[in-house]
Every structure is written in C-alpha cells, then in structure tokens.
Amino acid sequence: MGHGHGHGVGAGQSASGKHVGRLWAAFGIGATFMVLELVVGFTTSSLALISDGAHMVTDVVGVGLALTAILMARRANKAPGRTYGLYRAEVLAALANAVLLFGAAGYVVIEAVGRFADPPAVPGAPVLLVATAGLLANLVSFALLRGGAEESINVRGAYLEVLADLIGSVGVLVSGAVILLTGWRYADPIMGVAIGLFVLPRTWKLARRALHILFQHAPERLDIDEMRTALGRLSEVDEVHDLHVWTLTSGMEVASAHLTITEKANPTTVLSDAQSLLAREYNIEHATLQIETRGSAERCREMSW
After folding, report:
1. Which residue from 87, 303, 219, 218 is spatially nearest to 290, judged by alpha carbons?
2. What are the sequence ranges of the domains in the chain?
3. What is the mean pLDDT of the chain?
C-alpha cells in the first residue's frame, strides 16, 4: 500500500515568493542607477563608470530573472497537469544568475589586466559623484534582499548580483578618489582585479548549490544513512529501502521511501510514526511512504535502478 503525506506542492509558496515586493524595489532602484551610470559614463568617456554600469546591467537582469521565475512558478502551478509546477524555474534563475556573474567577473578581471599596459585617464570628480549615488542605491537593494538570501536560492542569486555591484561601486569610488588625489592610473585596474577575485568564489558556490538541486541530490544538511537507520528503528519496521530525499526549490524538501513491516504490524500506525519522525527530526513535511510486506518488497529488488 502507498501513501503520500504533506502539503500539496502546487498549493505551497516557495521561500522566494515571500520577497516579491523587495525584489521589485531592488529592480527599480537598479534600473534607475544603471541608466544614470551608463549615460554619465558615455558622456564623460569614463571607462570605469561604463564598466560599472555594464556590471549593473547584469545586476538588473539578475533581479529580473528572479522575479520572472517567481511569477512563472505562481502562474504555472495552477495547471493541473504540472504536478510539481514550475518551482524549478527559481533554481534555473539562480543558475542563470551565476553564469551572468561569472561572465561579468571574468570580463572585469580580463579588462583590468589589459589596462595595466596602458591605464586610461579616468576623470575623478564625475566618477566619484556617480559612484557615490550608485553605492547608496546598492546599499538599499542589499538591505532589501539580505534576509531573503538565507531562505531562497533564487533570491540569493539576485542578492549576490547586488553584492557584487555594491563591491564594484566601492571599488570605483576608491579608485576614483585615488586618481583624483594622486593621479595614479593603476588604481583602476588593480581595483578591477580585486572585485573580480571577490565575486568569483561566491558565484561558484551559488552555481554549485543550484546544480545540487537540479541533479536532485539530497540536501546537504541531511545524513541519509542516519535517516534510514532512524526509520528502521521504528517499531514493527523490518527494512527501509528506496529512500530518496531531494529539494524541489528553496524551502521545499521532499522524501519517498519503502518500509517493509512485520506480519503483525499495523500499517496505519507505522505510517503515522514514520511521518511524525520525518517531520519532527528532519523537517520534512511532504513524504510519500509505501508500506510493504516482505513478499511485495522482493519485487523492489528486481529494479535495476
């Protein structure tokens, strides 16, 4: 006999869904200052501002991807044929954000290294003014998204975009001040390399986490062998097999397992005990558990995967 337990996946709300308003605010702020930096950058021929404005483009695109993924998930989850909805769109958005960040950080590093041979003249005053405004904007966006970054991989992708741009604004601000005060042109490429090296490892961590979910690996916080042992210790459970745990999207972890019971066991009691254990000890509310007798369990062993 089989039994599914927990909240319906389509009816729930992913962790990032709680932060839509903040994402919209961050998107609006980022888009406004992206235009400002690019306009002033091209007007003054400031490569530093153009570079930071281009980085802010990836920031705005990243936040836009996060918003699009949430809206897609909400709308698509209403379709009866999509039993898991489109919650994975949020994970794909996080992966796309990581790719964008890799590209932007790589570009900054390559461009900065190229400038060491002949550092361009960068006007300090306009760079300082616009970089200061951009820094303030990024601080606001950073504050808006910081809380959600711990709950949602999708919001974390947007948060890392803003963090990278915030660091970029600080870098432009510092290099602009150094150039204005000393005329030392190498400040700009040195800061560019520092920004790229700061962003790349954090981007790799985001990409790794997104791929971990997409490949349906068990959540890193869980010890699957320990979970199997705990289920096997339940009264009247003889064996636990076909145990699978995976993450649908941030805040939505799902499990399935087959439990072989003794001949005199009460299936309803075993099922209830197993559900309670998974919810209490492992914070898994949605679990599909199949209760089997020893004879029916033999058929599972004939499976090749």
Report:
1. 303
2. 8-214, 224-301
3. 79
pTM for the whole thing? 0.72
Check: CB of residue 207 under 8 Å from CB of residue 95: yes
Which tens digits make up the pLDDT trace of 56-66?
A: 776 787 778 77
- Residue 245 bridge partners (DSSP): 255
Helix axes 267-282, 224-232, angle to 10 degrees: 150
Contacts of 266 by beta carbon, 8 Å cutoff, 6+ apart: 236
How many whole angstroms separate alpha carbon 22 and alpha carbon 30? 12
Instruction: Note the pLDDT of residue 282.
Output: 95
Determine the topology of domain 224-301 in CATH: Alpha-Beta Plaits (3.30.70)
Task: For residue 136, give the DSSP letter.
Answer: H
DSSP class of residue 219?
P
Q: Do domains 8-214 and 224-301 have the same CATH topology?
A: no
- CATH class entry, domain 8-214: mainly alpha
